[in-house]
Structures are given as structure tokens and as C-alpha cells.
Input
Amino acid sequence: MKLIQANITLVALAIGGVITADAQDRSLPVSPGAPGMQSAENLSHNGEDPTKPLNRFELRFQFETLPNVTKSGRFFDDRHAERLTLRSDLLLLSKPDQLALRFDLPLVWSNKPTSENPRGLTQFGLGDFLVQGLYVRTFDQRWAGAVGLRMIIPTATGDAFGDGKLQLVPTIALRRELPEINERSNVGVILRQFVSVAGSSSRKNINKFGLEPFLNIGLPNQWFVNTSPKLTYDLYTDKWFVPLDLMIGRRFGSRWIASLEYQYGLVRGNDSYNQWLEARVGYFF
Output
């Protein structure tokens, strides 16, 4: 619990630092030449649209509650997991054809009971490493799309920290701007197929379809709200997982962002989370 409290304190200090840096950042000029924060259009992005890639570094701290479970005749409740994710995105090339790279390194605390942790004690470990590459095409002022591949590498140091499988995740996204609302609003959808191709034979194979509709609404003073529920359909169990999702956040000047996101599992057809809360602090460059 001390480690969890330390991470919460770290995120709180980072948010405080973002607010402090905002005043300084407002005085910095925005470079018109490089493919990152070069345009007024990019200043309105909140980082939740895959068809609007940005150079960034983010800290994301997530707390999730897990379903109750019975293992070896013992009932376990109050299960939870905490995850501190270090995320970095790199943008190559300029519009209309761009290449966006993403890297996620998760650090996990979990009391999920496994064969390695039969008593369900809280343990710490490294999660599965995520690598993604997307080709992004901007068609016009309203429409853009992306296609690419995500790879989830089984680097987890324990069964409770990852899936134990190398996963290939083909990804397609489509987005439409909503100038009828304002220049910072859009709607779109992301389609993914999660397929395990290698990994531990003792872990479950993965074959899931992912559907992620998203809606971004820009608010005054650089505030925004976003909803992007990540629905999944398991082709092995023929079950859906459907969450409720809501994010609220704010841009601070041209480079900083902070947000808070909540998800609640409405339809839980698999052993996923009940609900989770994620705090994000990001720096765009």
C-alpha cells in the first residue's frame, strides 16, 4: 500500500507541476516547422484521437477493482490492481501522410491470486510491453483515418501482471470533425482484432474483437470531455465486455495536459475489471 500511495502522490505532484508550468508555457513560442506542436490546430488536441498523432510523453496511473473469485476452495474478494504506465508517442512525417509510433511500459501492483501467489498478496511486477505503428491519412478538413498494427509483448514478470502471450493487434480507425459543435470536437471509431500468436502454453489463447467508438467535445478554457468505451467480444467464449466510459481533462498551454477517466463494466462476460479510474499527466513536444 505504501508503494500505491507513493504513486498517487507522484501523480498529484505531477499535476501540480503541470499547473505551475502552464504560466511559463504560455510565453513560449510555437515552432511552425516541426511535425509536433507546430500548428494552431494541434494546440486543440487532447491526445485521445489516433488520427491526430502527437509527439508526447505521459504518466498514467490506473486503479481498477477486479471480480471476486474462488481459487483452490478459497474465496477472494476485494481484488484490485494498480498500474503506472510510461507512454511515449513519436510522430514521423507531415500531413497528409503520417507515421505514428507508440510505446507503453506498465508497472503493476496486484493482489490477484494465481499459482505463483496462492494467498492473494499484493505483489509488484512489470507488465506486458506495448508497441504500435499507425499510418495516418488526413483526407480533408473533416475526415481522417488510420491503419496499422499493435504488438503486445509478454514481458510481464508474473501471471497477475500480463496475459503471457505475444499478441498481434491489427487496427483501423476513422474520424470525422464536428465543426457544428466547435473546432475541438470530433467523433470516430477504432476497430481492433486481438490474436495471440505465441507465448506460454499454460496461458489462455486470445482471440478478441475490439470496438471503440469515441466522442471528443471541446469546452471553454481548453477543457474537454471524452468518451471512448472499449468493447470487446471474445470469440472463444462468445461473450461481450461492455463498459461505460467518461473522461474530463484540460490542456495547459501548448504542451501540457491532465485528465481523469472513469470506466464501469456494464456487461462483464469475462474476468475483466469491475471499474477503474485513471489519472493522466502528459507533455506534448
User: Anything to note?
Assistant: The first helix runs from residue 2 to 26.
